[in-house]
Design brief:
alpha+beta; three-stranded antiparallel beta sheet; about 35% helix
Length: about 180
């Protein structure tokens, strides 16, 4: 870059460098995200826009908005996937099979479909953990509800559903998982 960019003087007119082009693209994306995304994560979007404008003003620095996003919502980048242990009749795989399997003798409880095996159940729990919105706290447990995108069983009334509830303990182990009514 010619001139003195720190002083804002660039007699050669070469201010349009690769990092500047990237910053302009990031700023355009942030404006688009603000215009189309409603109020969801408004603070994160505004911070990213401000950081990218700052990056535009600092020669050789780019991607500050992305760094800002990662710092503020990094926990969402690597989803938490709970562990499904063998367990017993009160928790884990054994509890789910005993109470919520298609062959369970319990009435008026949700049940996984006959096509759901243990491997599929692991996939359903993984999908719920990665597609679900936010874990909520209920006592000493955390619960997530999610639409896994395919019919997985029936709710307590016997209606087909693609929604599942996964309940975990503080150690991240699955207490139970079961189909829930459509949301």
């Amino acid at each position: 870059m010619g001139g003195a960019p720190v002083n804002g003087i660039d007699p050669a007119g070469r201010w349009l460098t690769p990092d500047t082009i990237l910053d302009i693209g990031f700023i355009a994306y942030n404006i688009y995200a603000l215009a189309t995304g409603g109020r969801k994560a408004l603070g994160i979007k505004l911070s990213a826009l401000g950081a990218d404008i700052g990056g535009l003003l600092i020669p050789g620095v780019t991607g500050l908005g992305t760094a800002s996003r990662v710092a503020r919502e990094g926990k969402k980048l690597l989803p938490f996937v709970p562990r499904l242990a063998q367990g017993n009749l009160k928790m884990g795989l054994e509890h789910i099979v005993h109470r919520h399997w298609h062959s369970s003798g319990f009435a008026h409880v949700s049940k996984f479909g006959a096509d759901v095996g243990v491997k599929e159940l692991h996939g359903i729990i993984h999908d719920a953990a990665t597609r679900g919105t936010d874990w909520r706290v209920e006592g000493a447990s955390r619960v997530i509800e999610s639409n896994v995108g395919r019919v997985i069983g029936t709710d307590p009334a016997g209606h087909a559903t693609s929604w599942v509830s996964v309940v975990i303990n503080q150690a991240g182990e699955v207490i139970t998982a079961y189909p829930i009514p459509l949301r």
